[in-house]
Each structure stands twice: as C-alpha cells, then as structure tokens.
Amino acid sequence: MPEAFKNFIGGKWVKSKSGKTFENRNPADTGDLVGTFQLSTEEDVDAAVQAAKKAYPDWRDTPAPERAEIMYRVAHIMRDRKDEIAQLMTREMGKVIAETRGDMQEGIDTADFAAGEGRRMHGQTVPSELRNKAAYVIHRPMGVWGLITPWNFPVAIPTWKTYPAITTGNTIVIKPATYTPACTAKLMEILDEAGVPKGVINYVTGSGGVVGERLINHPDIRGISFTGSSEVGKRIGEATGKTLKRCSLELGGKNAQIVMDDANLELALDGALWGAFGTTGQRCTATSRIIIQDGVHDEFVTELVKRVKALKVGNGLDESVQMGPLVSEAQLKTVESYVKIGQLEDKAKLVCGGKRLVGGDFDKGWFHEPTIFDEVKPDMRIAQEEIFGPVLSVITVKTLDEAIEVLNGTVYGLSSSIYTQDVNAAMRAIERIEAGITYVNGPTIGAECHMPFGGVKETGNGHREGGWTAYEIFTEMKTVYIDYSGKLQRAQIDNK
Ligand code: UN1
To answer: pLDDT digits over 63-120, tens only?
Structure first.
C-alpha cells in the first residue's frame, strides 16, 4: 500500500479540509505510486499560519543555543535515516541513489552548521562616539516565514531554508514542490522527533496556485523564501513587494564552463560530464553551456561525445546507473521541445543524443538521452534559456575576453567555471564573471552548504542562502544604544 501522507499543522498530522488528495508517482516507473498527499486549500494554509503564529513567542524567547541544540539531534536522526530517505527520494524524483544520498548529506551538513550557528549569531559591537554609551547590533527573529521549495533537491533545499529560519527563532510553514512532498514529510517527522516544539514547523501540500499563493499574500507571514523559476520568482517578488514582506529568491541559471586551450582536458571533461548530466541536468547550477577556446574544441567535443554516449541511463535505484529520468512528463516535453528548437530554429549541430529513450523499462518512465549541441551561437535560444534537462550547448571562442563576454551574455548569473592552468586568466575570470559562484578547475555544480549560495541578475534578488548569510535572511538587525552617563547626550551635537 502506498503511504497516505497528511499535512503537519500544530504538531499533528491532519487531513486537508478539501477532502481531496493527489498522487505522486516514480518518474522512472510510473506504475510505482510513491504516495498520496493532501490537496490543500487556503483554509489549511490559514490554520498552519495560525499554528506558527501561536508557537512564535515562546520559540522566539527560547535561547538560540537551546534552539540550535535540537539540530544536533536532527543531524543524528538524519544520519540514521540517510539511506532509507535516499531510496524514497530516488523513487520520488528520479535522481540516482548516490546523488540522493548526497542530498541527504547536504541536509545533515546543514544541520551540523545550524547547531553551531545558534551559539554564534554574531552581531557587531562598536565604540560609541559619546562617553558612557554602548553601541551594538543584535539579530532578532521576524515571525512566521513561508518556505516554498523545489523538487530537484527534495531534502537539501528545504533544510537550507528551514534550519536557519527556526534556529534564528522564526516559525515556518513549508510548501514542498508537488513532485517531492514525501521527502519533506520525512523531514518534518525528523524535526518533530528531535524535539522541535509543536507549531514551530508546519507543512502543507498542494498546488502553487492555491497554497503558494495564499502563503505569499497572507498578512501574518513576515517573509517568503522561494527557490524555483525566474518567472514564478518575479511574481512572488511583486506580490510580496505590495506588503513589503521580506522575500528571498533563488531562481534560474544558464551556467557555463569555460575551457581554455591550456586546460587539463581530462579534468575539464570530467567536470563537463558531471556538471551537465548529473541530476539529469536538473540543477539550478547545472552546466548548460561549454564555452571552449578554438584550439582544443575538436579534441574536447570528440572525447566528450564518447563519454556521454557511454553514460548508463536508467532507474536510479540501480547503483550502476549514472543518469536517471526527468522528474515528470512535462519536464521531458520541455526537453524535447528545446531539442527541436536547437535543431529547427537555432539550426545548431546535434552531435549526440536528441531523443526520448524508448523500449523496455524506458517505457515506464520519463527518460531522455543526454544531448549535446555543437556550433551553438551565444544568442541562440538553447544558449539563452534555462532548459533544466540533459542538454548541453558548445560555443567556440577565440580568447578569454570573448569567453567571459559570452558567459555574461544571458539574463542569469548563478554558477560558473573556468578550466585553465594560467593563474592570471583564472584571476581575471573570477573578477569579471557576473555570477554568484565561480569555480576554478571544478564543475559548476557542487556548492558546499556552509558557503553563501545564490546568483546575480535574474537569478535572484541579492540574498545568499547557505552558510552564515542565510542567518541574515531570516533575521532583522537591531541597533542598540545604551546610555549609562545619567544625562542627555545628543549625538552629532555634544562633544563636538
Ligand atoms: C540547486 O540546483 O538548486 O551546488 C541547488 C550544487 C548543489 C545545490 C544545487 N549543492 O549543485
């Protein structure tokens, strides 16, 4: 029997007022029903926000180190359940088991970091310009946050948002992506078991149009953190702007890997293969463009095609499989439509892949060949638009300056990479590339959880998740002055 999941509100697992549910199926084997989930209404969201609001004052007043201590237990339980939830994650969204274990590990690391951060949450203390007066900054929680998470990292990304949000003293309502609600439900179980008080975390499943919409417009929500497409992110930015809620957006990417003539080609090939086809290309940080210097183009492309053709595609539960399916039929159709655009509209040269995989077990799910286009021009649609699938475009350039210009020539700016042995070229790239993340001699994917994560231009709105910067997203800064002189002291006037 597939598990029947419920919402988690005020510390209880409850059904939606709608009385309706939706199904979630394994994208590698659609006969495998992962679970049924509540198709929630605005009323359900309101109940969750109410529960979060009620839990807030006591949680806010709990000392931060005490709140954070729970995170040690969270990390511990996550370690115990790492493999079990990784299996569920592969069934739920398709990426291969080594990667879903990695997704769990990213969540464990994020818990470890949060556990320590509760004892830090540093504010600055600076001298006052007046005698007998202290001046310093503290970080205060804000209230109830709405977290809207994507399906490509079903545990890691919810932890990136939930752990700093609650460690800093906020309470939350999370709406997971409709393709991956099971993993987030498991995360709620873990947090509950670890001792997070009732109402501090609430989980409501359902559509973006109903649940997401209510969250972003709810008057009692102080902030929204969203990871997903730039299109939806802009709408959320607009809606939250109207009520001046804080809003943190992690959006699309069109990440590129530059390969210079002097690069270690073996390394650059390994990087391209992993960066472009890991997670079936369904990462915000996925490599979707290779920008290559003309001297090594032929050798690199020939070798890359050979390796891509050898990739084993299939059900990610099989340890020997290297690339899983797309998350859904809709995502597969998007990939197919971009392959068509690449061939017919852009007229780029298809050098490998290009087709949906059919026959045998492939017919049970949403599989597509890893695909490479060569002779791509920087302004073609396949080189400009986010595809979120296993499609890589190769663009040839003559110089480093041209490579950087091409890399910067999209509306996005999340991750980037350069392969070169020349430290001068690397330093120039680091300074001039417009992106939130730059790797030197590493692929565009693989960010570490304790470092700031986010992008420039239409990839976000200036916030950085991950690391200590996430703790700034979820808190208000308060500047404190304490005058112990016993008399009125006027800044800018006295003692001048
Ligand atoms: C994402 O694709 O939204 O850096 C996040 C990486 C992962 C996180 C990706 N650690 O590829």
So the answer is: 999 999 999 999 999 999 999 999 999 999 999 999 999 999 999 999 999 999 999 9
Q: Same domain for 204 and 268? A: no
Look up residue 247 and give its two tokens. Answer: 């809003």
The ligand 1 atom at the shortest distance from the C-alpha of residue 283 is 2
Q: Is 285 in the pocket of ligand 1 (CB under 6 A)?
A: yes
From the CA of 437, give the closest atom in ligand 1.
Answer: 4
Same domain for 346 and 203: no
DSSP E strands, 150-239: 171-175, 201-203, 221-227
Question: How many angstroms does the Cα of residue 415 sit away from the middle of ligand 1?
Answer: 9
How large is the average pLDDT for residues 44-65? 98
**Residues labelled as active-site residues:** 250, 284
Q: Residue 302: inside a domain, yes or no?
A: yes
Please give the residue range of the domain that contains residue 297. Answer: 255-440
For residue 465, give the amino acid letter. Answer: E
Tokens in use for 11? 């510390």
Count up the domains in the chain and report the number.
Answer: 2
Distance 281 CA to ligand 1 centre (A): 11
Cβ–Cβ < 8 Å for 305, 269: no
Expressed in angstroms and rounded, the spacing between residue 446 Cα and the centre of ligand 1 is: 6
151 located within any domain = yes
Sheet holding 475-483, edge to edge: 125-127, 133-141, 475-483
Question: 412-436 pLDDT, tens per residue?
Answer: 999 999 999 999 999 999 999 999 9
The set of residues, in sequence order, having a beta carbon less than 8 Å from that of 181 and lying 6+ positions away, is: 5, 24, 35, 37, 205
Distance (Å) from CA 282 to ligand 1 centroid:
9
Which pTM value belongs to this model? 0.97
Q: Is the CB of 283 under 6 A from ligand 1?
A: yes
446 Cβ closer than 6 Å to some ligand 1 atom:
yes
Same domain, 10 and 159: yes
- Ligand 1: which of 225, 283, 386 to mutate, most ligand atoms within 8 Å of CB? 283
Indicate the pLDDT class of residue 179, thresholds 50, 70 and 90: very high
